[in-house]
Target: J domain-containing protein
Amino acid sequence: MIVPPEHDFAHWREAQGWTDGGGDVALTHYETLGVPRDASRADITAAFRSQMRALHGDAGGDDELAKHVSSAYNVLSNASRRATYDRTRDCRADR
Model:
């Protein structure tokens, strides 16, 4: 799992490939959650919960990162959305 060290979210965002400009993310949903592509739903849920604990506003977290982590979880935790996402990613890789 990718968890920001010492709540240094600005440094962590840059190190993880987040751009400063338009908020575009250079990571896949799997990289965002820090799980392998063949991760089980339980692994995805555990990674999501860990990330969200670290990113929670009361813990000094980053709302923008939390939105991306939540979006990644919403796709990967749903079997049909995950399959569609994987097919789309595979098509892009073939180009």
Observations:
- The chain has a mean pLDDT of 78.
- The two ends are 30 Å apart (CA to CA).
- The chain is about 60% helix and 0% strand.
- The CA atoms of residues 48 and 70 lie 7 Å apart.
